[in-house]
Design brief:
single chain; mainly alpha
Length: 92
Amino acid sequence: MNAATDRLEMRLPPEEKGLLARAAEIQGVKLSQFVLGPALKRARKVIAEAEQVTTTARGYKDVLDALAHPPKPTKALRTAMKDYEKAGIQWR
């Protein structure tokens, strides 16, 4: 059973579609497979790069130190936590 349920359509000049179709035929795959494979690979790379956080060695150490020794909550933070709880927002 085919799990594909959504469609993706695009408009392009006939010569470009012909070029893609010819390349797909040469590789022995369907046009949609030929186009989709590289697009998915690129999408995964773009998302991974966008979600990756980089820092300096000093910044990394500072984060670890803050996690190991968190500061005491300020009055403003305690108030905000209570407001969140009253609003039914789960913050923990």
